[in-house]
Amino acid sequence: MKRNSLIAGIIVAVFAIVCSVNQVQAQSTSTSVSINNGVHKYSHRSGSQRLSIEYDGEIKIADDDKSIESISRGGYLLIRKTSFGERREILAEPSSSGVSYEYRVGRRVQEWNQEAQEFLADVLLDVIRTTGIGAESRVERFFKKGRLNGVLGEVDNIRNDHIKHVYLKIMLDEYELNDQELVKLAQYVPSELDSDHYISEVFKDYSDKFLKNDATTNAFLGALRRMDSDHYVTQILTRALREDLNDDALIKVIEAADVMDSDHYKTNVLKEVLDRRDLSDKLVDAVIKASTEIDSDHYATLIISDALDRPNLSDEAFNNLMDAISRIDSDHYVTQTFQSMLRDRDVSDKVIEAILNRLEYMDSDHYRNVIISDLFERQSISSEHFTSLLNTVDDIDSDHYASQILMKVLRNNSLNDAQYDQVLRKVEDIDSDHYKVVIIKDVLGAKLTEKHLMSILDAAESIDSDYYKSEVLKNACNLVQDASDDVKSTFRTVARGIRSDTYYGRVARCID
Q: Please, what is the end-to-end C-alpha distance for the chain in angstroms?
């Protein structure tokens, strides 16, 4: 029993020592990269090992990756490796015979012998894969040997996403891949590169190569779904939208935007789509449908407003637009959207009906007032919709906002007698005598027909306050004196409803 406990204790102690060593090594690992005036510097330290690389100019590597074939004039390559306290370095420079080398162990210069050549051959592949030196010639070599698979086989051995993306971009720049290879590459890039930044660097400038048929397009957009950063996905998609894409490809771009989490970036892509001049009804409809999946009322409104600016929306697109608006919770943004619909245009009865339906679900009297006022001021309203729109005033709790709407409507010189009377019947329904008087005094200052005046006197009869009723009748006095006997009779009837002798006396002598 004691022996088992001792063994267990030793195992735990050894495990702790290994973990401690790993932690120390992880803590002492660091990498730095800099480029200044064309001079590239790279330094990597891991525990007791350190590799430093510095180079300038164009460096061509031999096909076996074990020696340097040439260095451009004025260029050089300095490799310094330290391992367990021993430092060795090679300085390679161009010469008349090709490349000259200086080999050092510690601080002492050694002759360029087999040991030096073996050290260069041993370290050079790591240098190449770390810095990207000779990448173009190496991509050419691997592609000639095995096309895409040949290049990817080498990229698999590169640990740095930056260098991986350099190889992949060179291949996409210089060589035509077939559809099968493009599908494989689209699947490979997000699985092999960890950084969304470098994934986007590979994809964003070559979307035209991928977005050419269903297979390559699906693979390309499927790859984007594996990226975490909506920022970089947006960069790729907005760059893709500069290409001459057909409707099917654009639908897939919209679908790719739809799966992004960020409403901000989703909106950026959808607005880019809407900015295209040649959009079909099908595409506009797809964008509008996508806007219904945007959680933010602010961003949904941006898309809907842009869609509204497009001429000749189809019935289906319009119905989806109304559905999108119905999903907006904020009365503020609903109002913004409706104002976009009404601005500088005559809208159809279909639009007015949609607005009337949405008004029913609005909470804010302020925004109801804004929309209803805009409709009355800017649109030619049919008799049917005039009544429906006027009835929406009943849903407004605030007498202040109701009175603002009714005053604006009564100022409309195009109202016929029946409509004028309809509006004044709504004035009678206002609870506040103060606001009734405000409306009636306002219209008494306008040019009125006798029928209008009769309707106003009928509305005045609904005022409970003797003071306010007398105020209205006093303001109507001059108009009534020149009116017909029917108008005067109505005036007297309203006046007799005043209970206070004082207030009655102020108006009775007007026509007596």
A: 125
- Alpha carbons 43 and 45: distance in angstroms, whole number: 7
- Backbone angles phi and psi of 363, in degrees to 5: -95, -30
Please state, in angstroms and rounded to a whole number, the distance separating the CA atoms of residues 511 and 233. Answer: 80
Task: Report pLDDT digits (tens) over 188-246.
Answer: 999 999 999 999 999 988 988 998 888 999 999 889 989 999 999 999 999 988 888 88
Distance CA(148)–CA(185), nearest Å, equals 8
Burial of 24 (0-12, 13-18, 19+ CB in 10 A): exposed
Q: Is the Cβ–Cβ distance between 284 and 252 less than 8 Å?
A: no
What are the backbone dihedrals phi and psi of residue 103, each rounded to the nearest 5 degrees, phi first?
A: -115, 130
Handedness of CA 170, 172, 173, 175 (dihedral sign): positive
Report the relative pairing of strands 59-61 and 49-56 from DSSP bridges: unpaired
Residues sharing a CB contact under 8 Å with residue 35, sequence separation 6 or more, in sequence order = 41
Considering the entire predicted model, what is its pTM?
0.72
Distance CA 5, CA 25 (A): 30
Give Cα separations from 40 to 34, 55, 57, 103 (angstroms): 6, 5, 9, 20
DSSP H or E segment with residue 128 = helix 114-131
